[in-house]
């Protein structure tokens, strides 16, 4: 018996063996004497896991005269065919190798060789000659986004003094970075290095410029793909470029590497990634105008049973449980009824449940009462109000931009559409294609803005570039503003893409009578020709995916642009991510309006499933919100498990967050039953109905109301601050609510309620639960001993309103 047990223990402790080796790429073709190819060797272990063993494997070539090996990089010696063999112990693998054109003089490409090399050396980075005004009188485009300009700056500017054609090695272009002449950037180039040989060879070749016949770069990829590592393990990366003519090239040595979360992983300039601790992040590689990523993850060192990941209601739980299981993070259990009631009421309608609603829900014994509650909340008018408020933030609705009257009208129209459950695609189309009298078509108010407005219009019509950026960010989750001046540093969009996309919306103009700058109607009659900032050429209208749209003369381009936009995968992903972020306090992609390919989702299968569900429901937001709120994932408690206490990305538990400014102000007014008054608004108006960020309110500003100057989520803050604590503790506004003769305490006292009844009412109104036995005992003792019962009750309510349980959605 003991021997059998010992055998089992030893078997369990035996590390997995190497089952086979894989070499990447599976074959090598080197063309020309300057060609090179990095190879990766991966050990596939007996348990199915993979490990980078490139540094441990023995590499050899046959015949030996064919290739030169520099570490794991192959370089040609002579033409021919052969093989590369990788060995690790008794396991080996072979791949075929072919070499040609080693006797042909090499040719250099300015676009594919020179510009990327300058970017790799840092010469065209923003801290050097890629700065807006260059450095030392020498300006390059940022990271080489405009090679035609860089060629002119190097070869033609200053009468060509930067290069010396008769003695290329004497060129200032080389001698300064070599440190042979004074150079503010110091020595950045080593004589005889591959980079030096390339730049010198290009000069010796006659310094040719960009060639139109060169095949464009079609795709960039990182091999060997996504990897699961242990903390401390490394993984060599290989970056492969594929051109439109089918040719592939190893560009690892010219690619720029970075990592999204440097606390989880690191990467060197030559593509050696290292997992630093448990978690998941992405490594990014950039070459020319293409970017790509690879995900690195390391499970947490927790021993968990499979049963911890079985609770489910729908596909959301399947995707979340799969991710948590892979990372060894145990999810939390189900939240209480009172927690769910308060949480879902805040998330769906931005409003606390009333005391009566809390009593009814807690007393209800029906097994489907949570689903019924969700349906009830989604049918209330506050649903449209809270989502219109969020869209108002994105659309920067404020008096300074479009006058208070029109800001209120647009936000009210948005609330009507959302309460009617208008599909998100239909709503977007109505906004983007709006035309005609604005009195009849309030969707057109989206296009109005005094700051900044279209030049030479005479109407408050937003400038084309600003409308373009707002549309991309709001409806596609893409921040394309960087591409206005240069290629996007961390996304696929080029400056050309920006102006082609902007040309789709350049026709918008105002018409009719002009009342204080507001046009009577919206038209698409403006000169459609938008000029490119860099080239000054007219930009053809084209979507961001570079597909072709054909327009008749005077056709409103926005109609086809809107049809293209709502059909994009990012349109559905962006909407799904925003809905998820509202319910969980953070998106599956963060920031929530930054869906670039180099900012991957924390759970891509989850986001893809949500987007597919949204499309299937014809973009009905209420349907997807119901699915989210019914999931076990949403209904988990905010109390973390021992293995999830550091998790803020994978939704193992509900993350508590402070109520936003408007919702907190409304909660204070509702619980105390003393409504706020807002300038120019009808009596009883709630904070979530205030469409103009310039309507004064110290309370709203203290708690992070966004000024609506910039579109997006960055202006709103829900982080606790000292000023907020002082406002709740000592402000006259809160004190007036507590002591008001019309407030809840005075009402309950006049109704001759007992201490027990009053405490029940206050707790249910503020926290959606009854007092706990210890709380009830302590408070009733204080009330009994108090000389002034009214003041003691006010103090009890004050304590509730200052508690984290009231201030936070949990």
UniProtKB/TrEMBL annotation:
Keywords: Signal. The keyword Signal applies. Residues 316-508 form the DUF1549 domain. Residues 1-19 form the signal peptide. InterPro entries: DUF1549, DUF1553. Coiled coil: none annotated. This is DUF1553 domain-containing protein. It comes from Armatimonas rosea.
């Amino acid at each position: 018996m003991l021997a059998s047990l010992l055998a089992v223990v030893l078997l369990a402790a035996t590390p997995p063996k190497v089952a086979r080796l894989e070499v990447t790429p599976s074959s090598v073709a080197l063309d020309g004497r300057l060609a090179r190819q990095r190879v990766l060797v991966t050990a596939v272990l007996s348990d199915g896991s993979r490990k980078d063993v490139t540094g441990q494997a023995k590499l050899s070539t046959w015949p030996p005269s064919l290739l030169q090996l520099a570490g794991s990089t192959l370089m040609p010696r002579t033409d021919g065919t052969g093989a590369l063999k990788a060995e690790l112990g008794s396991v080996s693998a072979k791949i075929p190798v072919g070499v040609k054109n080693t006797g042909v003089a090499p040719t250099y490409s300015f676009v594919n060789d020179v510009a990327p090399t300058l970017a790799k050396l840092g010469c065209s980075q923003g801290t050097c000659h890629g700065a807006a005004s260059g450095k030392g009188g020498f300006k390059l485009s940022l990271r080489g986004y405009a090679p035609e300009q860089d060629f002119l700056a190097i070869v033609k500017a200053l009468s060509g003094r930067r290069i010396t054609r008769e003695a290329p090695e004497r060129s200032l272009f080389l001698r300064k970075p070599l440190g042979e002449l004074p150079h503010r950037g110091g020595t950045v180039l080593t004589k005889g290095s591959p980079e030096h040989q390339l730049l010198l060879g290009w000069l010796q070749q006659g310094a040719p410029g960009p060639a139109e016949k060169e095949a464009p770069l079609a795709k960039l990829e990182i091999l060997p793909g996504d990897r699961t590592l242990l903390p401390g393990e490394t993984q060599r990366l290989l970056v492969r470029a594929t051109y439109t003519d089918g040719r592939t090239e190893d560009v690892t040595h010219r690619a720029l590497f970075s990592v999204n979360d440097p606390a989880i992983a690191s990467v060197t300039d030559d593509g050696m990634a290292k997992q630093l601790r448990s978690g998941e992040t992405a490594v990014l590689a950039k070459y020319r105008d293409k970017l790509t990523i690879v995900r690195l993850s390391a499970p947490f060192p927790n021993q968990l049973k499979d049963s911890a990941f079985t609770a489910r209601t729908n596909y959301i739980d399947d995707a979340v449980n799969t991710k948590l299981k892979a990372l060894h993070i145990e999810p939390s259990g189900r939240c209480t009824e009172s927690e769910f009631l308060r949480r879902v009421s805040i998330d769906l309608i931005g409003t606390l449940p009333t005391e009566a609603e809390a009593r009814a829900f807690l007393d209800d014994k029906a097994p489907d009462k949570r689903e019924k509650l969700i349906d009830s909340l989604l049918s209330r008018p506050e649903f449209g109000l809270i989502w219109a408020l969020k869209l108002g933030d994105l659309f920067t609705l404020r008096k300074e931009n479009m006058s208070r009257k029109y800001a209120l009208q647009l936000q009210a129209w948005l609330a009507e559409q959302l309460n009617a459950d208008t599909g998100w695609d239909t709503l977007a189309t109505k906004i983007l294609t709006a035309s005609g009298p604005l009195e009849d078509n309030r969707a057109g108010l989206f296009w109005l803005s005094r700051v900044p407005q279209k030049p030479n219009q005479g109407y408050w019509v937003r400038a084309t570039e600003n409308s373009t950026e707002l549309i991309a960010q709001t409806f596609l989750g893409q921040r394309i503003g960087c591409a206005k001046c240069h290629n996007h540093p961390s996304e696929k969009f080029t400056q050309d893409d920006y102006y082609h996309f902007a040309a789709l919306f350049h026709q918008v103009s105002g018409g009719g009578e002009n009342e204080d700058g507001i046009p009577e109607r919206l038209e698409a009659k403006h000169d459609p020709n938008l000029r490119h900032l860099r080239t000054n050429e007219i930009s053809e209208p084209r979507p961001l995916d570079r597909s072709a749209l054909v327009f008749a003369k005077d056709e409103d381009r926005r109609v086809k642009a809107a049809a293209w936009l709502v059909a994009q995968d990012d349109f559905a992903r962006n909407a799904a991510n925003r809905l998820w972020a509202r319910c969980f306090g953070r998106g599956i992609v963060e920031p929530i309006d930054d869906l670039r390919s180099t900012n991957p989702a924390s759970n891509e299968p989850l986001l893809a499933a949500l987007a597919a569900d949204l499309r299937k429901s014809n973009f009905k937001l209420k349907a997807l919100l119901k699915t989210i709120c019914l999931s076990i994932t949403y209904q988990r408690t905010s109390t973390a498990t021992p293995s999830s206490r550091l998790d803020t990305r994978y939704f193992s538990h509900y993350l508590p967050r402070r109520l936003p400014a408007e919702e907190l102000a409304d909660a204070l007014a509702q619980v105390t039953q003393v409504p706020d008054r807002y300038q120019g608004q009808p009596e009883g108006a709630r904070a979530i109905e205030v469409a103009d960020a310039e309507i004064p309110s110290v309370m709203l500003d203290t708690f992070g109301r966004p000024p609506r100057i910039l579109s997006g989520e960055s202006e709103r803050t829900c982080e606790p601050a000292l000023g907020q604590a002082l406002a709740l503790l000592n402000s006259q506004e809160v004190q007036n609510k507590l002591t008001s003769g019309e407030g809840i305490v005075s009402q309950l006292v006049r109704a001759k309620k007992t201490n027990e009844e009053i405490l029940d009412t206050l707790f249910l109104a503020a926290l959606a639960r009854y007092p706990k036995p210890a709380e009830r005992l302590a408070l009733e003792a204080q009330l009994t001993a108090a000389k002034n019962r009214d003041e003691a009750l006010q103090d009890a309510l004050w304590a509730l309103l200052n508690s984290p349980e009231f201030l936070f959605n949990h």
